[in-house]
Amino acid sequence: MPPMSAFLQKHVGLYTDLYELTMAQAYGLTGQAHKAACFDYFFRETPFKNGYVIFAGLDDLLGSLEALRFEKDDLDYLASLGFQESFLGFLKDFRFKGKIFSVREGEVIFPLEPVLRVEGTLLECQLLETLLLNQLNFQSLIATKAARMVQAAQSRRVVEFGLRRSQGLAGLAASRAAAIGGVESTSNVHASFLYGLTPAGTQAHSWIQSFPDELTAFRKYAQIYPERCTLLVDTYNTLKSGVPHAIQVAKEMELQGHRLSAIRLDSGDLAYLSKRARVLLDQASLHYVKIVVSNQLDEFIIKSLLDQGAPINAFGVGTNLVTGQQNPSLDGVYKLNWLEGEPRLKISENVTKTSLPGVKKIVRYTDPEGFFYADGVLLEDEKSAEYIHHPHFPEQKSRVAHCFPESILFKVMEDGRRLVSLGVAEAAAYAKQRLAKLSPERKRFENPHIYKVGMSQKLMEMRAQLIQKYQEPKP
């Protein structure tokens, strides 16, 4: 088994936007490269009008950072772009030597809270930006979409097979993130190998079409894979031939001491066809044969099928999961919050884009019933808070003194070396555990209850002072 986080291991230094490199060179030329800096990663809005996001991509990010370097052909290419020899000499020996603090992979996170913090020199922190955003934004998006589908499936199996519809190599990260979101298995063999996922698959219509008739195709498949046989029944006519032929093969398998695992429906009215197929299977005393459905499924279709009483045991999801339909991106950002001992912030006329300054931590407050109540963004040296203030409307505040406080930001990398390596199965189990502590009204699909994220009094005052400082007219 290869090491986890092996997805991006070569030419990692070039996996960035050009302006990260031009700024890095300019930092050196202006004497700022080695200033101590701190950056935050956070997002502003939840995708899919959802009530939460599942944090994913951390282990891949840490692995990529350990591999971050500039090889000879990387430097030759950058020289052709006009970068100076002194800067290229610096990059030749560059390794990330900073610290990273983060929530655990699989954590339930919310808008505007700094869920990952990078500390290091200004130059090295800057060079991380694009790589970090690329890894965390996409995987967190897909893990969240997967969690919604798993929730809609109500304890039934969800299998991911979106590789053929994914955006190139993003299919690898999508399979990993989907597993963290709760999907049980994937058709993606490469991702299974890379991340230790459970592979799954049946057959395509071409298998059925390659034989003289459907019954022969079913028999041959059952002979080769008697212990894990699922038959695709909609190639010609689902109820007139597909299901009857599957029943015939299932009976033949019983005589040989085997059992047909399932039938799969991939087209048509899935609610109606699954109900009729269940009747036919049960009439043949094949109660144990499961029904798997696929075909452009998402959380809303899954929910609708089950609301209609469709007797479905498992769902195969692809395109709508791995492409993040209907929100194909998470708006995660990376902002400087501290430089050389001084807090920094970005100010915007749009109040929602004014950042939170200073080195901070997140305290999660759990109510007496055991549900997550609110998250407080506090300065690093604060222990807790009695109240937290709304980040956009500070006059609005919530009392949290009655809740149990839990710090959820941990050091995960020091001196460029990772301190944790959480496997996908562990991250998925953690996500499931944390989602169970989120109240039902915050997990509903329609108008979920907004989770409170607020800042401490001390942080609120720091931000107000900095805004006044930077907006004062200069003499």
Structural class: alpha/beta
| Rg over C-alpha atoms, rounded to the nearest angstrom | 26 Å
**Given the structure, what is the number of helices?**
16
The unreliable regions are 1-6
- Largest sheet, spatial ordering of strands: 13-12-1-5-3-19-20
Tell me what portion of residues adopts beta-strand conformation. 15-25%
User: What kind of sheet is the major sheet?
Assistant: 7 strands, antiparallel
What is the CA-CA span between the terminal residues?
Answer: 64 Å
Shape: globular
Number of strands: 21
Relevant terms:
475 residues; alpha/beta; 38% helix; disordered N terminus
Description:
With 475 residues, the chain is of the alpha/beta class. Helix content is 38%, strand content 19%. The chain has helices at residues 18-29, 58-66, 72-80, 85-92, 122-153, 170-180, 189-195, 205-209, 214-224, 238-255, 270-283, 299-307, 319-322, 424-435, 440-443, 457-471, and strands at 36-43, 53-54, 99-102, 108-109, 116-121, 157-160, 185-186, 230-232, 262-265, 290-293, 314-317, 332-339, 342-343, 360-366, 372-379, 387-389, 397-399, 404-407, 410-414, 417-418, 452-455. It has a seven-stranded antiparallel beta sheet. Helix 11 links the parallel strand 9 (262-265) and strand 10 (290-293). Helix 6 (170-180) crosses helix 14. It is globular, with a radius of gyration of 26 Å. Mean pLDDT is 95; it is low at 1-6.
